[in-house]
Amino acid sequence: MSEAVQFKSDDLLEKGDGLRFPIPVLGPHATGFVVRFEGKPYAYVNRCAHVPVELDWEHGKFFNMTQDWLICATHGAMYSPQSGRCVMGPCQGKGLSPIPVSEKDGVVLVHLDQF
Question: Per the confidence metrics, is the pTM higher than 0.90?
Fold first, then answer.
């Protein structure tokens, strides 16, 4: 398994669709995602803190209607894009599992070896 997943910075739009990637160490169907919010990339395991289901309501659709929060399509739990902390819904007090991410020279790197 590669230690990092990389994407082109241009493919990660501000408050746009998230980019999904596999996380084989968590199981054959486990995924993660990276989104851009306020200019910075943030990556998380694609699993709600309330019930272990993927967040996106359509492939790559992680933001709510106002594009201020990440939202779980199943129960409406909302998370801060910057911290992954649950701010509303049945997951209060919990949060998404962050994955370290960096960006340099037009490349977004998700560091799977560091989480």
Answer: yes
